[in-house]
Design a protein that fits this description.
Number of helices: 17
Helix content: over 70%
Mean pLDDT: 84
Number of domains: 1
Radius of gyration: 21 Å
Structural class: mainly alpha
CATH architecture: Up-down Bundle
Largest sheet: none
Distance between the termini: 56 Å
Strand content: under 5%
Length: about 400
Amino acid sequence: MESTLQFLLALAVIIAAAKAAGYFSSCLGQPAVLGELVVGLLLGPTLLDMLHWSIFTSQEGHLGEVVYDIAQLGVLFLMFMAGLEVDVQAMRLAGRTALLSGVLGVLAPIVLGMLAVMPFGFSPQQGIFIGLMLAATSVSISAQTLMELDVLRSRVGITLLGGAVVDDVLVILCLSVFTALADGSRGGPLAIGWVVLRMALFVAAAVWLGLRYLPRLGRLVDYLPISEGLMALAVVVTLVYAYAAEALGGMAAITGAFLAGLLFGRTTFRQHLESGVHVLTYAFLVPVFFVSIGLEADIKSVGVSGLPLSLLIIVVAVISKVLGCGAGGLLGGLSGKDALRLGVGMTSRGEVGLIVASVGLNAGLIGQDVFAAVVLMVLVTTLLTPVLLRLLYPKTELEAQAQANAV
């Protein structure tokens, strides 16, 4: 019982701190997500180390795992909400631009990352892998910021969501190719072909099942005397799609949640779900997710000796995404200003980058120093992206667009 009470108190502190920090961030003219990320950093091992306070001693270790699991639910339903708000027709029109930005947004970090770290004594194989760690994008941070600015349904927002999906698929595919080539026992070309086939089969099956059965299933559940049946259906489908994306499709779980949102967005009960899931997501799950990023990060672990490499990795991470994704946006027909917004929006890194780094650490491709530098890079780019996006969307432009939408 004591551990349960400590868990409840920890959640209360996290959610209250997140909302208070989000409020102060909004008062300063910045997205609320920035405040939530900063307060997570303050509560984490970098400063206060909240999860190791004496009041949480019986939950030490276990409490962090539970908070992490809730945070993962937060990012899944944040991506579900992003998918729910997307205009599928607009995404289809942005397909070429999204593809170009996603592809170039992966190639640029791999090439620039490899070239940047080679002078530090890394082998070409290690350099390519470090570049691969820089290639992953965390669309959840940018999606939240664009939703707050009410521009997620703009051409930049739609392209960003599509490009991020392409980015994640390519990074996971490149990771599979890299490990298959590095370990000949895994089957070489056959292993690579199987990875591609798994992804294609999953996406095709998920879309076909969703388009064919979700509307019927939703109407059936809505007809039955079940309390909040549609909400429960949306939760179940999101969790199943997230699980299947990673376990069966070999791609990130957030891609499955995003697909679920896209498919529900095409049904007649979209608005009902949007209001219901919004409450669950933003009152409980998302604050825990954003704070948890800081709770897991310890900037002190980088050390003075690792600072030059860390700073280099951060600079390359930002520049490579802006250049790569921005160039893709320009080639796809975006204006210079919108291409810059797209590149900045794709700058934040997240769970996929950390997954790639964990694989490299376990395989001996990188050491603890590089892993700590990557964690710091993820944190800095996550904090930086909302600020830069807010600067690239002047208040006067947002007000003019809001008036145009209201007409």
